Amino acid sequence: MSGRRDFLSMPAPENYVAGLGRGATGFTTRSDLGPAREGPSEEQMKEMLAKRAASLGQAAPSAYGVTEKKEEDEDEDRFQDPDNEVGLFSSGMNYDKDDDEADRIYQDVDEKMDKRRRARREAREQKERDEYERNNPKIQLQFADLKRALGSVSEEEWAALPEVGDMTGKAKRAREARMANSRSYAVPDSVIQAASQSGQLETSISTDSDGTMTNFASIGAAQKSALQVRLDSAANNPGTQTTTSTTSGTATSVDPRGYITALDKKQAMGEELPVEDINRARVLLESAVKTNVHNGPGYVALARLEEVAGKIHTAKKIIQQGCQMCPKSIVVWEEAIRLNRENLHNAKVIAASGIKLNPKAIKLWMAAIDLEQTPDARKKVARQALDHNPQSVELWKILINDTDDIERVKLLFAKATETVKLSEELWISYARVSGPEEAQQILNAARKAIPTSWAIWVHACRLQEEMGRVNLCDKIMERAVKALIKENAMPKREEWITQAEVCEEENDIVTAGSIVKATIGWGLDENDDRRDVWLEDAKSTSARGHHEVARAILAHTVSIFPYSTTVWHASADLEKHHGSTEALLSVLERAANACPHSESLWLLYAREMWQAGDAEGARKVLGRSFEQLPGNENLYTRAVDFEVDAENYAQARTFLQIARESAATDRIFMKSAVLERQLGAYEEAIDICNQGLQTWPGSWKLHAIKGQIYESLSKLKEAQEVYSIGTRAAPKAPVLYILLSRIQERQGAIVKARSTLDRGRQQNPKNAELLCEAVRLERRQNNINAAQKIMAAALQECPTSGLLWAEKIMHLETRTQRKPRALEAIKKVEKDPQLFIVVARIFWSERRLDKAATWFTKAVVLDPDYGDGWVWYYKFLEQHGTEEKKAEVLSKAAMAEPKHGEIWQSVAKDPKNFRKGVEEVLRIAAAKAE
């Protein structure tokens, strides 16, 4: 056993490496005892590893215990990096021109497809955002109306608001305070003596016989005050740069440029800075200047401060020091010139010194020019400035503006454009002061000098318009577009529209039209919705007051889409509101010829012709429309309306007779029966209704008119029979059930009336009119509980019906609950004119007249066709409005020509009000409204 331990003292075998079997590698360092020896070589290591593997019966490793990779590993590594393919896919590394062209084609296709669907996608996304915001309103939107109401609070009301106090535990705190004040303690004399001497920190040193004292307390207070100033400055300017003094170790935080601006604002507002602020600012700025003696804006700020403080002499000294310490600072020299401006000689000397040190400073040259009093002296200085700065457009403009001789001005412009060839302003100004022919040559030279300038092309087009050569404007703009595209300097389509609007403002109408014609399609593909885009451009441009540009856009749109009725209607609408009658009729004539089968264009043409006072022309238009659209009932009814307005009833009856024979529809028979009823021929009206019902037994309007005729003749039994037959022939017509129930109610058959409405609700589920009539039936019978039950069920079926909510708020709620119910209804229904009218009436009852007028206006703007909105608004104005406002509402209602509304229809369709205008019907309806 003892002999086996000798291996510890034995030398290690040759090339022995400890832990080699575990994968370790050998190394030697100079710290080893003896001379450093070289470790085993790579071949020796491999040999040893191979022997060990053979003894263990394993495969030999390649090197240092790492086995060789198999083919599968190589195949797997081949596909690890898709950008570094090898083998079969190594062709992916060879990216040639064909691949690049294919990528570009695919990219263009993707961009076009995305552009085609962009408008619809954006509209859909906007709709989804609006839906989300509507379902999840922000808190600030929920209280927006309350915030707006704060604007009506007067200053006296604000001042009268009581202070909000904390009433929580007030009595308890007061009791504790009294108890605390009532306590007393015996204070020792030492405390009293120390308190009396606490504020007397004085130490004196006798220097002579007169007893002079040194107060160290005042010195400490001064140091504390200076420290407080710096702390306050740091707190007030957390974002400014801090300049640290390397010598004193102090730091100041100041923004000299910002302080200059603040001083200017104070001076402009006529305010005087407090002495404390001036002293504090002086400390800061002096520190800034001392820590950085080459800080030009610091000197300027300090000089401005002294100027504000009234120490102009000190300000001059400071700015003089700034000029010495910052000779290259332009702002310092400008401030020095300004401070010495009252003494022109000194100011000129300062300007000369500054220019000598900064000959390229254009601002200093301009300040020196301003110091001169005569034009000759100004021109002399300007020439000297141009000698040093020949590329300065500002200096050339000053020199030219000071020159009176036009020929001399032209020479200066020629020299300026030759020196500064890339200045559009100089070239265009040169062309303006020259004659027409010479201006053309100048603009041609300018176009060659600046091929990327669109302003030069526009001015050339305006020049041709001023010369009367309007036929060349389109050609010039076409050449301009081609040239700018070639130079890759084509502006966006929106920028061209803006430039066209500028030309319209300067009365260059033809140029504006040429710009629109040449550039309105830039950036739009033929597959895009160009028509909609151009219509939107015309609408927005017209809204900004540039009607000529809008007219040019629509004219170009019409030339591209001549068979689009939408474009023709937009063009006619523009001429109607912002053009002349002749232009409107001309547009409609072209529209009718381009779209002869458009019913709406023929009707609009005939109507505008009739309103223009040309009755014979309107009849001719209708005659032409009959040729293009034979048997069209709308054209016949429009012809009847014209003849009725002209009180030519015989001709109107003739038209209706022809229509019943050639273009028979239930509407024609209904129109004939209504006319006979209005003229008092009740028997003829009933006969026409019977004839129509034989062909169209399901026409509920014929049943309704026939029953109303019997009602007007006080034949309630016959009317009831007609309505009953109508409900069976047209079960999906809610109006017939309502008329039948009212007849039964007038006859006292309340149970039958309820049954009729129930039958109508079964045939027409979730119908707001029938549900509301059922509620009103119970309310008229003073059965409020039943009415409320029916209303609750009705709102479950139709939660977004403005009619039901209006009925509930105004007739089934107490006065105090109306406003909360109205708020709840608006949240569910959002925009409904009936609810707006209800809210306005609530404010009206509360005598909040401004709010009521606002909501009435919202209602008529939201739906001008809703006649009841105009009725209630006019009724409100009759009590609280001026004559001018009432006249305005009457005129707007006449333009809107409302057709719907319960009160409105009951008055407008009454035979007693036959041939009465909108204004007269509005007055009658307002008197009837309750």
TrEMBL record:
Q: Where in the cell is it found?
A: Nucleus
List, alphabetically, the InterPro entries matched.
HAT, HAT_PRP39_C, PRP1_N, Syf1-like, TPR-like_helical_dom_sf, TPR_rpt
Task: Identify the keywords attached in UniProt to this record, alphabetized.
Answer: mRNA processing, mRNA splicing, Nucleus, Repeat, TPR repeat
The answer to whether UniProt assigns keyword Iron-sulfur to this entry is no
Q: Where is composition skewed (Acidic residues) in this entry? A: 71-84
Manganese keyword on record? no
Q: Which Pfam families match?
A: HAT_PRP39_C, PRP1_N
- Region ranges (Disordered): 1-135, 235-255
| Any one biological process term the GO annotation gives | spliceosomal tri-snRNP complex assembly
In what residue span(s) does the PRP1 splicing factor N-terminal domain sit?
A: 12-170
Question: Where does the UniProt entry say this protein principally localizes?
Answer: nucleus
Biased composition range(s): Low complexity? 240-253
Cellular component, GO annotation = catalytic step 2 spliceosome; U4/U6 x U5 tri-snRNP complex
Q: Where is the composition biased (Basic and acidic residues)?
A: 39-50, 103-114, 122-135
Q: Where are the TPR repeats?
A: 833-866
Its quaternary structure? Associated with the spliceosome.
- This protein's name: PRP1 splicing factor N-terminal domain-containing protein
